Amino acid sequence: MNKIDLINTNEIDLIRIIKILWSGKWKIIGGTLLGVVISLFIHINKNNVFEIFTQIKIDKLVPIADFLTINEILVENSLFYSDATRIDSSIIFDLLDTEYNDYEEVVSVLENSEFFLNQGKDLDKNEKYKLFSSYSKNFNMNPAADGKTFNVSIVWHDANDGEEIFKNALNMSLENVKNSLLYDIEELASFLEVKIKRKIDFYKSRLFLLEEKIDILESLSEDQQVKIPTEYFIIKEKVVLLENDLSVFLLRDSINNISEIDPFIWVSYDFNLSNIKSKINYSIYYLIIFLGICMGILYVILSQFSNIFKINDNN
DSSP characters for 88-151? Predict the structure, then answer.
């Protein structure tokens, strides 16, 4: 069969094209194998990436007795913490959400990780911070709608290493939450201490005035002779109660007790129950193999056209 017959200006002869491709099948297979080899090379030299999903819940705050004491004092003295009259798990939830999601703790942990000590050794301070900041976004902790649970998503080349980095960042965040909480409670204790002192000073000044009136009690009316001593003893009782008020002492004692606990016990999660999946994008490998097949087909077709043109030139 003459190869010139393969060109038809009006229609494509599919049977002849298939015959051409079949005659060059080894070249197409070669292109396919080249795509497979390139895909394998990329896969072997590419770091594996894992995506880890889990949940974190805020448990009951401990020491329970100390938080109950703090909340009781807040209510009794009309004191507010973040517009609330009690400190509970929702307060810790909001504080942790704010503290973790500035990613400063994640960046701090990454700076000391072995992986980044190697990657960032030749970078200046600003370049390192940009590098750490970009990678810190791989450790996400987003609040769920229930206001009690965080949805955690970690994307890292090593699942165990990723879990460890997240745990360290979470622990640092919880420590900062605890310190912030204790600082605010101490501020409330100081405010209450000043408030009690002012009340004592005010009542003592009233007692002083009443004592002066008592000295001239005989010269006053009968009604005043009854009213002034009564008021005096009522105010005197208030002074005694205020001077023996243990609210500030109990607040600071609770602060000391809470400062000694590990805030990690405020949360619960289990990475053993987490969902871990490989984040490798296999579609890129399929694309490379497909391109190898296309290159093989294109080579076969171009070779046939080249032969046809050569024959035409000879004729």
Answer: -HHHHHHHHHHHHTT-HHHHHHHHTSHHHHHHTTTS-HHHHHHHHHHHHTTEEEEE-TTSSEEE
CATH level 3 topology of 50-278: Bacterial polysaccharide co-polymerase-like (3.30.1890)
Q: Angle CA(188)–CA(189)–CA(192) in degrees, nearest 5?
A: 85
Q: How far is CA 57 from CA 21, 155, 300, in A?
A: 61, 20, 62
Contacts 24+ apart (CB under 8 A), 80-84: 81/184, 81/185, 81/188
Q: How far is Cα 147 from Cα 152, in angstroms, rounded to an integer?
A: 14
**Which two structure tokens, joined as six digits, stand for 162?**
């990723």
Contact assessment for residue 280 and residue 45, using Cβ atoms and an 8 Å cutoff: no
Question: Of 278, 299, 279, nearest to 34 (Cα)?
Answer: 299
Q: Can you say how many angstroms the Cα of residue 236 is from the centroid of all Cα atoms in its chain?
A: 54
Closest CA to 298 of 5, 34, 11, 8: 34
The pLDDT assigned to 280 comes to 63
Enumerate the CATH 3.30.1890.10 domain ranges in the chain, comma separated.
Answer: 50-278
Residue-wise burial string across 97-125, b where 16 or more C-beta atoms lie within 10 A, e elsewhere: bebbbebbbbbebbeebeebeeebeeeee
pLDDT for 244: 94
| DSSP state for residue 27 in the 8-state scheme | H
Question: Who's near 142: CB < 8 A, 6+ residues apart?
Answer: 150, 151, 153
Contact 53, 155 (CB under 8 A): no
What predicted TM-score, i.e. pTM, was given to this entire model?
Answer: 0.71
For the chain, what's the residue count? 315
Contact 283, 39 (CB under 8 A): no
| pLDDT tens readout for residues 228-239 | 778 888 999 999
> pLDDT value at position 7?
46
* Residue 309 in tokens: 């043109």
